[in-house]
Amino acid sequence: MTELLCPAGNFQKLKAALLYGADAVYCAGKSFGMRSAADNFEIEELYEAARYTHQRNKKIYLTLNTLPSWREFEALERFLNEIKDSGIDALIIADPGVLTLAKRVMPQTEIHISTQAGVVSHADCDFWQSMGASRVVLARELSFEDIAQIKKRISKELELETFIHGSMCVSFSGRCLLSENLVGRDANKGTCAQPCRWNYNLYEIAEEKRPGMRFPLVETDKGTFIMSSKDMCMIEHIPQLMESGITSFKIEGRMKSAYYAAVTANAYRMAIDAYNADPAGYVYDPALKRELESVSHREYCTGYFLDTPDRTGQLTNNPGYIREKAYLAVAQSYDETTQRATFIQRNKAVNGAPAELLTPGACGKRITLCDMQNEEGQAIDSAPHPFMRFSVKVPFPVKEGDILRGADAEE
């Protein structure tokens, strides 16, 4: 069965991803992961996260995919010794030295090779398998045809994983020196400042050995963007993904919200389940794309599954993110007698406002926030305070963990 692997930047996001359909989650400790700006997990939290995940018969993987210098290996060994009994199912690694150390300290833990390793051929796969890897996360720059040819040439025991959704990097497999050069933050150690997303003014461009070469720029009324990539979204191509031989479909986004973790997991879970239920009769549901458009993202594209980097850079035409719908609250309970649902607030909710209720296995269902009350049963006009409990009338059952989000009046 194909695995749906979702990001878990902290415990709240981990719980959201698992509740909404992830088969596995990936996370990081406070060091040695490529998203150091995410909340990430303390040592004790990693143990608790592994217990929580395994209680639900799911898997948890830990990213160790930075490229550490010689100075960091003593600290890395201490870290591995601290987590070796946590029950983490696999370590995601990019560096051969890190792999060697991990195999010595945690010999029973599976090794997955990170996309940071830039695996683009069957020979790469064979090498990493010979080093003890059970799975390889392929470079994002590969097409369906590339993946098919690699799959034909590797051992049946070696698993393949690919990113199917989320941010992409203008640099090959995420190996970039721009951030370190401009602001002293090393992208290969998890501290990228994302200067590829900045707005630049180009005054002159020339290369000594290439006189007359033209460099096309993409310009809008908001600026010029020559390095900022679009986000990947493969929800419209589930049959091709399912038939590609890929073991694990990976969603990017450990720095995104718990709402993002829930929505992306939910949309791809529904698509995968629908395909598995009837492969021959599978029909793409546009509602799933609308769900994915409700989260924070840049312009969507299909990455390089259907094209190649030499033909398209998949560069965005617009700055910044398309903002996600307001994440208003999480359901705590539902009283069938009174038809009242109790929520824990995440952002300000207003009585009388249009909203949608998202539940695992279904798209958002429209409601109007009406008869809003506080914990004491008193009528209120809004729920403005973080984590306050409030209730509203909902004419259908609501489950714990359901998400209340904002909706546009004209929807």
Outline the secondary-structure elements.
Layout: E1 3-7, H1 11-19, E2 24-27, H2 43-55, E3 59-64, H3 73-83, E4 90-93, H4 96-105, E5 110-113, H5 122-130, E6 135-137, H6 144-153, E7 159-167, H7 178-183, E8 219-220, E9 223-224, E10 231-233, H8 238-242, E11 248-251, H9 258-277, H10 286-292, E12 300-301, E13 327-335, E14 340-345, E15 349-350, E16 354-358, E17 365-368, E18 373-374, E19 382-383, E20 389-393, E21 403-406
Parallel strand pairs: 1-2, 1-11, 2-3, 3-4, 4-5, 5-6, 6-7, 7-11, 10-12
Antiparallel strand pairs: 7-10, 8-9, 13-14, 13-21, 14-20, 15-19, 16-17, 16-21, 18-20
Helix pairs in contact: 1-9, 3-4, 9-10
Summary keywords:
single chain, 411 residues, alpha/beta, TIM Barrel, seven-stranded antiparallel sheet, 24% helix, globular
Give a written overview of the molecule.
It is a single chain. By secondary structure, this protein is α/β, with parallel strands linked by helices. The protein has two domains: 245 residues, Copper homeostasis (CutC) domain (TIM Barrel, Alpha-Beta Barrel), CATH 3.20.20; 80 residues, Translation factors (Elongation Factor Tu (Ef-tu), domain 3, Beta Barrel). The chain has ten helices and 21 strands. Helix 1 runs parallel beside helix 9 and helix 3 runs parallel beside helix 4. The model has no long low-confidence stretch (mean pLDDT 89).
Q: Output the CATH topology of the largest domain.
A: TIM Barrel
Task: Kindly provide the name of the CATH class of the largest domain.
Answer: Alpha Beta
Helix/strand structural class: alpha/beta
CATH superfamily of the largest domain: Copper homeostasis (CutC) domain
Largest sheet: 8 strands, parallel, barrel
Low-pLDDT residue intervals, each spanning 5 or more residues = none
Mean pLDDT: 89
Q: How would the global form be characterised? A: globular
What is the radius of gyration computed over CA atoms, rounded to a whole number of angstroms? 23 Å
Tell me the fraction of residues in β-strands, as a range: 15-25%
Distance between the termini: 37 Å
What is the number of independent domains? 2
Helix fraction by DSSP (H/I, runs of at least 4): 10-25%
